[in-house]
Amino acid sequence: MLSKELQKENDIVGFGDSSVYFHAKEDDIDKSIFKILSGFYPQLSLHEFNSPAYHLDLYENMIRFFIAEHKNVKILIIPINMRSFSPQWNMNPGYQFEEENIAMKNYNNWIFRVFYKPLAVFKLFLPKIKDHDYNNAIVYNGDKAVGRVKEFLSRRYSDWKSEKYIKDKFIFHYMYSLGKEHRKISSMLRINKMAKLNNINVIFYVTPIDYESGNKAVGPEFQRRINDNVSVIKKIASKEGFDIIDLSLTLKASYFSWRTDLKGDFSPNEHLIDKGRLFVANKLKEKIDFIFDGGLH
Predict the structure, then answer these.
(1) E strands along the chain, which residues?
(2) Is the distance from CB of 188 to CB of 221 less than 8 angstroms?
(3) Which pick of 18, 79, 155, 221 has the fewest CB atoms within 10 Å?
(4) Overall fold of domain 2-92+129-293
């Protein structure tokens, strides 16, 4: 899909998970953040590639792929979803995208392309992380182990709207202590390095988090943990000479739709109502305008 949709020259490309496009039933505007952004720049080409649970490890292979395909990109937008560093996401076998990653790494290998279907039949693409490993991964509240993943899965709870359920989910999703050796941080650094070598302006931004509800459920330590974890990423980025737009604590609870999403499990996530997506699009526009004002043509 990347190869078919991208042109030889591309102004703006956006990667993303469901936080960039999910819209609530009651929204007046159902456009993704990137579609809203595209409306600000009708003279420019903007392509978006997003799907539920996409993350930095996959984005790394996506940028490597379109560079190998000689697709030039002026600006690349990449969200950093803090939940993706948690065991809920990082260890989930269904979120590893093994097949997509292997396919992008070997796209120009004719032997791989010939044997792609047989390889799939023989289950080469099965996730390296097994269900057993995921279910038994340790969940932390800061540096304190508070249980295993299997104890925090939605099916273990009888009431998805109880205070305990909401609190446990916020802990499960966000209260880990982020180490600088995390594999997704390594992916972010490699993305930045590849982008620099290929004259691509990367805009990294931390997606908004429903910190008000988190503070209510967990206590003030929730917001401190978000600050600490985001600071780890920002300090590493600063040391490497690039910045990150931090939107983690910018939006109030009313901008998030997870509490009213009848199709979900009422589990905290980063899905925004239309006003929230418009807010993010405007913040990205500020950065894009700055890049263009600096001489990008």
Answers:
(1) 9-16, 46-50, 72-80, 138-141, 144-148, 201-206, 244-246
(2) no
(3) 155
(4) Rossmann fold (3.40.50)
Fill in the DSSP letter of residue 86: S
pLDDT 10s digits, 224-272: 999 999 999 999 999 999 999 999 999 999 999 999 998 889 999 999 9
Q: Which residues share a beta bridge with 50?
A: 16
106 touches 73 (CB < 8 A): no
The pTM score is: 0.90
Token pair recorded at residue 115: 């044997």
3-class state of residue 128 by DSSP = coil
Taken in order 153, 154, 155, 159, is the CA torsion positive or negative? positive
Confidence of residue 114 (pLDDT cuts 50, 70, 90): very low
User: Domain ranges in the chain?
Assistant: 2-92+129-293
Mean pLDDT of 167-175: 99
- Whether the pLDDT of residue 103 is over 70: the answer is no
Q: If 0-12 CB within 10 Å is exposed, 13-18 middle and 19+ buried, where does residue 26 land?
A: exposed
Q: Which residues pair with 263 in a beta bridge?
A: none
The whole-angstrom separation of Cα 59 and Cα 3 is 14
